[in-house]
Design brief:
Blueprint (H helix, E strand, L loop, with lengths): L1 H25 L2 H8 L1 E6 L7 E2 L6 E2 L1 H13 L2 E6 L5 H7 L4 E5 L10 E3 L4 E10 L17 E5 L3 H9 L4 E5 L6 H8 L6 E3 L1 H10 L4 E3 L6 E10 L3 H16 L1
Parallel strand pairs: 1-4, 1-5, 8-9
Antiparallel strand pairs: 2-3, 5-12, 6-12, 7-10, 7-11, 7-12
Helix pairs in contact: 3-8
């Protein structure tokens, strides 16, 4: 008799646990953020947009400042979680993050799985080479054998090099590489060209003046950056869109 009672009790606990797990699985990212009062926002370490001080572990940068302002407007605490390049989809699917901060359609293959807010900044990207480079008079000169692009896996530098300059060689760095490594590879002759934004280049030039130059006046592309959420998380997307509007308006 005692054994039956114990079995019934165990079954009851299992059913309750299953029901709780089912309820948790149904909870949307918006509901979770509203319940906890915390937005778990992924970021990609890319100075000076997101810069993590190795000694103090303090995170700073222009994208962080804007994201912080948006969270304050919503009355939310923001928890930043480091995510590698192109790691958004995996982290959304695992439930590790609710949104990405400072994100845009930088990798075109993610558009099928991620929804983006209105941008809170726009940035052009250009082709850069060594300061003494004289071989390239037009962008078409980059699309040929013997030219090597350096790029980071999961970054727009890879997408654009492959799409626009398919005849050139691509030298890839891992998706957790510091962006300055691309510029350093160009400076030291390991590669000829990198596609990157001028803000990143200006930061690199502070310690390496006169080593890198913009090859052409026209940008290769222009990107917007804001928040992103998992595809279909419409309530959180519209909420963050409202916060972006409020930040830009004020």
């Amino acid at each position: 008799m005692l054994r039956k009672i114990i079995l019934f009790a165990l079954c009851g606990f299992l059913l309750l646990g299953s029901a709780f797990a089912a309820d948790q699985a149904k909870e949307s990212a918006y509901d979770r953020v509203m319940r906890t009062g915390t937005l778990r926002c992924g970021y990609i370490a890319w100075p000076p947009y997101f810069s993590l001080d190795p000694n103090t572990k303090i995170l700073s940068g222009v994208s962080k400042d804007i994201s912080d302002s948006a969270a304050r407007i919503l009355g939310l605490k923001i928890e930043y979680i480091d995510v590698p390049n192109a790691g958004q989809v995996e982290n959304f699917n695992s439930g590790k993050i609710d949104a990405m901060c400072g994100d845009g359609p930088f990798v075109l293959s993610t558009i099928k799985y991620v929804d983006y807010t209105k941008p809170y900044y726009y940035v052009p990207v250009y082709a850069y080479g060594r300061a003494n480079e004289k071989r390239f008079n037009a962008s078409e000169d980059l699309n040929r054998a013997g030219v090597t692009f350096v790029a980071i896996d999961g970054d727009l530098s890879t997408d654009l090099a492959l799409a626009d300059f398919p005849r050139a060689t691509l030298s890839s760095l891992g998706n957790v590489s510091d962006p300055s490594q691309m510029l350093l590879n160009v400076q030291t002759g390991k590669a000829d060209v990198v596609i990157v934004d001028p803000v990143t280049v200006n930061l690199f030039a502070k310690n390496n003046p006169g080593k890198i130059k913009r090859l052409f006046a026209r940008p290769v592309a222009v990107y917007g950056g804001g928040f992103s959420v998992k595809k279909g998380d419409t309530a959180l997307l519209s909420t963050l869109n409202g916060a972006v509007d409020a930040v830009m308006n004020t």
